[in-house]
Design a protein that fits this description.
Length: 406
């Protein structure tokens, strides 16, 4: 009798777990395009989210998106730098979204003048107030691509978990792990790239510059920069300080130039747009390159970074990361260099509960290569239960071409 009772209890537990898993499946969705109301042009990297939930994604280069949820979708929220935030009804699930540029209106009580350096220092001092003190587990979609000239030679995608400790803990305690991944590689021998540049979901961990201030926001680093006030803008219909930074001295490593966006009311960092100084190519190469063959010449051309943050539940957290690297490679016996462009993009698509630490055995390390861990593009329903960044037309065409050549 005791065995039967245990069997029944086990069966009920399994059914309950199955029901819970099914309830979390993202079976409801909406899709569409986001364009500028005035120009009709598609808007890339618009943040698309489900109200009162944590599901999110961003639009692709064509302004297209698909957003999924485990509950029926009634409305979707769209927000982007310099545009009015829009909350729109889903309707039949096919959406045409038009964003209106939001001109900055100067309120009489609003002071534009101020010491930009002091504003940045004040925002740094408010990090503990504005960001999560407790650990969080973020579900993310990550994509990395490499183009040789204008042709894609490598495409890899992954759903990753990122465990972030509270903002009073060092970033070295944060971890990333792959949940699901796939890859497509060109089979042309001439397309083989024998180098490793920055990549993988850990890049978003190290470039969460609020949690990891050492590369830029640490007091000793900020002293190396000059600051100037830019034209204010709105993000999520909230006025922002825009502060331009540029190298103010010469160091033995490359510095950044770009813009920091800071919420005027809460002094929260909301967005960072940075480019690595390419004046000294040797210094820049050290920041971009992980390893290469001795006989290969690596010439850096660009490293640009966009990091955005979103306030939710009274706390700000990492929302989106994108890096673009351009470089030339040539063997010393050859005269003509080949140009490459590597793009890494990550969007936080969900906040998981509870915030379970990622075991060390599952960690994706900075020395890991996504290509070594990913599967091929075979299953058409690979991302069925996940929010992703939709591939744009150019990327879809590249995927089809690489598949045909296999």
């Amino acid at each position: 009798m005791k065995k039967i009772l245990l069997l029944v209890l086990s069966l009920f537990a399994a059914l309950a777990l199955s029901a819970q898993t099914d309830s979390l499946r993202l079976v409801y969705s909406a899709r569409g395009t986001v364009t500028d109301l005035r120009t009709g042009r598609p808007i890339e990297s618009v943040h698309v989210s489900v109200p009162e939930r944590h599901y999110a994604t961003v639009t692709n280069a064509d302004g297209a998106f698909t957003i999924k949820s485990d509950a029926p979708l009634k409305e979707v929220v769209f927000s982007y730098l310099g545009y009015k935030t829009l909350r729109q009804s889903v309707g039949n699930g096919i959406m045409k979204v038009y964003l209106v540029p939001e001109a900055f209106m100067l309120d009489e009580a609003m002071v534009i003048d101020g010491d930009p350096r002091e504003i940045v220092n004040a925002a740094v001092s408010r990090i503990a107030d504005n960001y999560a003190a407790e650990p969080e587990l973020l579900e993310c979609f990550y994509r990395e691509t490499i183009r040789k000239k204008q042709r894609f030679t490598y495409i890899s995608e992954a759903v990753a978990r990122i465990y972030k400790t509270g903002y009073d803990r060092h970033v070295s305690a944060d971890r990333a792990a792959l949940e699901k991944s796939r890859v497509l590689l060109s089979q042309r021998r001439s397309d083989t790239l024998s180098i490793k540049v920055m990549g993988g979901p850990t890049q978003a961990v190290t470039h969460d510059l609020v949690k990891n201030p050492e590369p830029l926001l640490a007091p000793e680093e900020l002293k190396l920069y000059e600051f100037s006030m830019g034209n204010p803008v709105y993000i999520d219909s909230r006025p922002q300080f825009v502060i331009h930074i540029r190298p103010g001295t010469i160091t033995d490593y490359a510095l950044y130039e770009g813009d920091l966006y800071i919420d005027r009311e809460t002094l929260t960092f909301t967005r960072m747009e940075l480019s690595l100084d390419m004046t000294d190519s040797f210094k820049a190469a050290r920041m971009m390159l992980v390893r290469k063959p001795l006989a290969l010449r690596f010439t850096p051309k660009e490293l640009s970074i966009v990091v955005t943050y979103r306030m939710q539940d009274g706390r700000s957290r990492l929302e989106y990361f994108r890096s673009t690297m351009r470089f030339n490679c040539d063997w010393k016996k050859r005269l003509i260099a080949t140009s490459y462009t590597a793009v890494n993009e990550l969007v936080v698509t969900n906040l998981r509960q509870p915030a379970v630490q990622i075991p060390r055995a599952e960690m994706f390390r900075t020395s890991d290569i996504l290509n070594d861990k990913a599967k091929e593009f075979l299953d058409p329903d690979f991302w069925k239960d996940y929010n992703i960044i939709e591939p744009d037309e150019t990327l879809e065409h590249a995927i089809d071409r690489l598949k045909k050549r296999r």
